Give the backbone structure.
Amino acid sequence: MPQKRFLLQESEIPTRWYNVQAEMPNKPLPPLHPGTHQPLKAEDLYPIFAEECSRQELNQTDAWIDIPEEVLDKYKSYRATPLVRAYDLEKALDTPAHIYFKNESTNPLGSHKVNSALAQAYYCKREGVKNVTTETGAGQWGAALAYAARTFGLEAAVYQVKISMQQKPYRSMMMRTFGATVEGSPSMSTRAGKDLITQNPAYSGSLGSAISEAIELATTTPDCKYTLGSVLSHVTLHQTIIGLEAEKQMQQAGEYPDTVIACFGGGSNFGGVAFPFMRHNFNDGRTTEFIAAEPESCPKLTRGEFRYDFGDESGYTPLLPMYTLGHNFHPANIHAGGLRYHGAGTIVSQLIKDRLMTAVDIPQTEAFRAALLFARTEGIIPAPESSHAIAATVREALKAKEAGQQKVILFNLSGHGLIDMTAYDAYLSGDLQDYKVSDTEIARNLQDVPQV
Amino acid sequence: MPQKRFLLQESEIPTRWYNVQAEMPNKPLPPLHPGTHQPLKAEDLYPIFAEECSRQELNQTDAWIDIPEEVLDKYKSYRATPLVRAYDLEKALDTPAHIYFKNESTNPLGSHKVNSALAQAYYCKREGVKNVTTETGAGQWGAALAYAARTFGLEAAVYQVKISMQQKPYRSMMMRTFGATVEGSPSMSTRAGKDLITQNPAYSGSLGSAISEAIELATTTPDCKYTLGSVLSHVTLHQTIIGLEAEKQMQQAGEYPDTVIACFGGGSNFGGVAFPFMRHNFNDGRTTEFIAAEPESCPKLTRGEFRYDFGDESGYTPLLPMYTLGHNFHPANIHAGGLRYHGAGTIVSQLIKDRLMTAVDIPQTEAFRAALLFARTEGIIPAPESSHAIAATVREALKAKEAGQQKVILFNLSGHGLIDMTAYDAYLSGDLQDYKVSDTEIARNLQDVPQV
């Protein structure tokens, strides 16, 4: 019987994260101060983020960053995650492609998010912070941060996007089980939230709105720092543990990926699996293709513009050089709440601009069709977010079939969908729809992007 | 840093199940035909179960049974599960005990149940069966069977206990995602269900009632066999993969358990982890202690009687020699739906009778208190069922602390509780209560047990 799962012993878990900023051909442009439009220094971020995270954010020189021993110790509770060869999916697709997935859904929080949550909470703790706050789209990040905060003895307050609270009440309960407080966003507890509710009382929120509220809480509360689940470069840095493990595991399997695929919200799960392989494109002449799978309803990579824009809806963040749909873009209420974000991280934006990776947009029903196929072949019910990566993988595997190519595809299964069962129920009942964004809507929202 | 997780490579996964019936000092008494009261032969079970399962059920001679290659191949999608040293729980309890747990919650179905679901579905398939049916208490077994049936190309119909459908709607959705049909039990679709509803229209069901309905469907439908999630000896046989793996993993850790603990519903998760270690008590002079943790509200091992009784509420099954509260016993609506069963499997019943193992009963709130401690230390939200094992482990670890004993405790974390979040929500809100059964109620129900 051929081997299905490739495991690493604790001693083989990587002890450093990979910082792609140090090795990419063109570095990302600097974030700008929202008032002065001057390039930011790490110190400018200290009031918001842990100082170490602020320095990592702007570090364009060190390719390798040591994982602190305390974080590594916690990683060892659930890492390394398995690399799995999806034989049954291959068979169902009748494809000559070899499909591998990195199974980040095996950890007890249910997604990759905990990889950065532990790092951010640890740095906060080390720097004497007592409280952390954050936003969460699907609730995966919020649950991970709630656990990480508890682990390092911090209090956590989470703004969960309102529509996500309705779709995924179990995730709020998870956060409370770990001792965090949870509030629906937009809320009346911040000025940002009140303004949004005043403008549109029925607004069910987005990651952009929840970020505004969390930043406001962090900057107006003593001993409190803000933490973020994706988009920023230091978050992606922490996620590179995924790809670094996968690299060792692909070696065990005796293969190397021709294509690496991940779903795309802000970019941390994508960068996490892709950047460690991308370094061999930069340094060793490899020609692996990298595909980010975003939702059709929130198509910043495929249809957005490369502009300086705010990372949040209320304009509290620095201006980031990103592919964006405009910070006022209100994504449709798709079930993949973790992908409902208007912009892309600065590293991925630069890579797209430089054509070093590509992106595809996936309609919601195609994502769920692929998810159902995956569940019924591989036995794992994937998160709606991860299902976008599966759908893109199915497309590539079918292309390989047509071309008769024995291609090696690796995708990141960023999380499971057990908390998202109502979405599957809706899909099975035929109640899910696709949301294609009109050119007019994109153009209208891009008008709100500041001129820099 | 000390090692936390002990893993096995695919080549190290055991290839045989351990059949404790062949080696226990006193074999279980034979099941009796409900009409004639004569000892059953395997052929008598063929109309209900797969023939191979029927033979395994009564096999008291072969200590080792080969796992079919097709089943082993599917096991390799998620096995071996990790053995984990619970350092953070030990620290929180300030105990000198070394606490290990076998983490069956890492598989994508969420519990150990899939180990037997795959075996039973495979044997049905091999014997030309087209449809399988079953009951499910908490939904863990139903979800596992739905997946296993899909995997081997069978149609599955599941009777889910009504209260469980209300408490855990996501589990019904999981079953439907894998393509199974799901009905609440008692239902109007069987005579057994109609009778129960007629007697008590508000009755929210139990495992005993759902078993009656599934057996009735199996025996009245062409090409249809019944499958069971626990209680019977062949189900427990399939679960011994847990303990056999754990034995190898404890060797890696350089320790051997003084105490093995598992929660107890029908006995399959308990036997699965315990019997492989128990064989060394029988054969090699080991003196490991084995503790089954049952709910205070359904105390068959601690307060039931050893009698021949039916396995189901309507009296369709053979008479089994078991510790029982009476097949008409209606357990309280605790959240640990998988433990709401009136009787114990025949092997465990004999072992309790022979004082080769012990049992404790755990109040619901003590189980959730232990669960919360476990979640906040080890990061895993346990299933309400498994929480009973954790509570019993906490008791033992605190005893070890008092005695200053560096005891080695192993418990089976049979599943995660992500689908049971409403139970945690209720616990955190102070809405959960304990249900102590009165002596009168036990005596009254034991009057309905047939005289044999």
Chain A has two domains: 45-65+111-233, 68-110+240-446. Chain A has 18 helices and 15 strands. The longest strand of chain A covers residues 155-161. Residues 137 and 338 of chain A are 5 Å apart (CA to CA).
